[in-house]
Amino acid sequence: MSPAQARGLIILTLSASLAAYLLGNARVGLWDRDEPRYAQASRQMLHSGDWVTPWYLNAWRAKKPPLVYWCQAASMAIFGDSGAAARFPSAVAIELTAMLIAVGLWRTAGAARAAWTVLIFCTSALVIMAAKMSITDGIQLLWIVICQICLCRMRNDDMRKTPTPIATAVIFWISLGLGLLTKGMIPLVLIAAMLALAILEVGPRWKERAAWLDAIRWWRRTRPVIGIPIAAAVVAPWVVLVHIRSPGFLTALAGEARGHSIEAAESHGGFPGYHTLLLAGTFFPWILLVPAAAVSAFQNRHRPEIRLAIAGFIGPWIVMESLGTRLPHYVLPAFAPLAFLTANALQRAIDGDAKNLINRPRLLLMGTFILSLFIIAFAVAPWILAEYFHQIPVVPLVASSTIFFAIPACLVRLAASRRVAGVAMILGLGMLCGFVTIYALFIPAAPYLQVSGLVADSLYAHGYDPSQGDVAMIDYKEPSLAFNLHGHAYEADDRDLVSMADRASPRWAITTSRDWDSLPPAVRSRLLVVSQSVGLFYNGSSHTVRIFVVRPGA
Fold first, then answer.
1. Which of 36, 58, 248, 369 is the most buried (most CB within 10 A)?
2. Of 128, 98, 111, 123, the residue nearest 21 (C-alpha)
3. Of all helices (H) and strands (E), which one includes residue 393?
4. What is the rounded CA–CA span in Å between residue 471 and residue 494?
């Protein structure tokens, strides 16, 4: 691949990925629990004018530091009070991260590897989801990659025996400080990567003190004497203000961090190897090339850039596998190094490396065929869902099926003719097309996948007004519903339904058919179900849920 071709591929990837990250965001409701919680806390920050202490409904949001809320609230101030505005900073952060990867690798690893790395990074499933969700991880990744690039510069300068500009250290520590204001995990991620690199470089000389000292000699280039005060200066103003305005907030924040590291928060646990097993989904579709990437990385571990990437992947991965709370997006900091290792294996195959697994026709064709079966499943699954819920949006279904059937056909044909670069292009750009089709066409036409929006629309259609009081969420306590109600909701239990039957307060409540059927007949007789909504509940174990909007009876 010539520099001109590499530049063209990078521009195409960045343009197509940004479009995929943004399209459909305004038409698809906020997912899971965390996304609406972040968005609602940011909305409350914007409307209250309190930019120091994050709040969610009527309680502190002492889950993360404030930077993600600042970014989302600023976006809402510019683009309007919506879920799409809350998601915008994540898309921008991932796009900026990809640009930095392109610039950094162009200089150190060459144009071709830079282009393939950007394509693989931008089109892997977890990165796309991080870019399309209003959570911390996309913004946190930006600071981590900046720090990783600075560390790579320091390490390379040390190998060449050339001085490292002080600006590199300053940028490193400022980014670390911003990372602390975003999520707080960044020092652990970076230290793990640096230790992993030291272990790789010491190798069989692990008993020799001189070998360890030589392996960590370059660490002094981070200039901690001037760097730690810089990072502290970034974080300290908020720390002081929040301690003055909300005593106890920092203690609660530290308690949350400690709890996440020791035990499974909100049942988000997992077994050892959880993230490794999920890699087939989070790194989809590039999981096809991971075996070749692993073998190639081992064979070329003596190369400085490969060794740095191995450390950048293994260090954070081990840390995330060690935490008590395990969520798929926790391993996002390892994805830039993983993308580079995969790109390196891909380019070596294109260059004709006979030892590369990708250049073994039977393995490539078999892997492509297996991957194609999973892609075909994406074509079939929406039809099954539509049939189950008796709502069949024909045009979106046909469009998504066409994309997901065309991709495997192209992949198998290209693999059979040993056109490795063509397979990679279809994998990446096909992934973006598939996401756009699902996100911009199918999901907006499938209301059963956005049941909280249905319930909120039903409430407003039946005359709900915030002046009547907040809505009691009983047995369906989804943060996405609270966001759709602009925060006019609170978590409750059956006692609120009894109170509604006795005293007509609260005026509105949300519950499920399961909870409704468990109520005494005398209570149900004094309540009125004004609407029912049926959809897929996907927090925890996925199942169908029927949700009732309840008012006091006549």
1. 36
2. 128
3. none
4. 13
Q: Write the CB contacts of 281 (distance below 8 Å, at least 6 apart in sequence).
A: 125, 328
Which band of pLDDT confidence, cut at 50, 70 and 90, is reported for residue 438? confident
In a domain, 45, yes or no: yes
Overall pTM surpassing 0.70 (yes/no) = yes
* Phi, psi (rounded to 5 degrees) for 543: -160, 165
Residues 114, 1 share a domain: yes
CA distance 328 to 1: 34
How many C-beta atoms surround the C-beta of residue 41 within 10 A? 27
59 beta partners:
56
Residue in the structure block whose two tokens are 């720090």: 147
The kind and range of the H/E element at 111 are helix 111-123
Give CA–CA dist 25/33, Å, rounded. Answer: 17
Range of the domain at 517: 450-552
- The amino acid sitting at 369 is F
Task: State yes or no: cis peptide before 520, omega within 30 of 0.
Answer: no
Instruction: Give the phi and the psi of residue 462 in degrees, each rounded to 5.
Output: -95, 15
pLDDT, tens digit, for every residue of 112-128?
A: 999 999 999 999 999 99
Distance of alpha carbon 357 from alpha carbon 415, whole angstroms: 13
- Distance CA(212)–CA(63), nearest Å, equals 37
Cis-peptide into 506, omega within 30 deg: yes
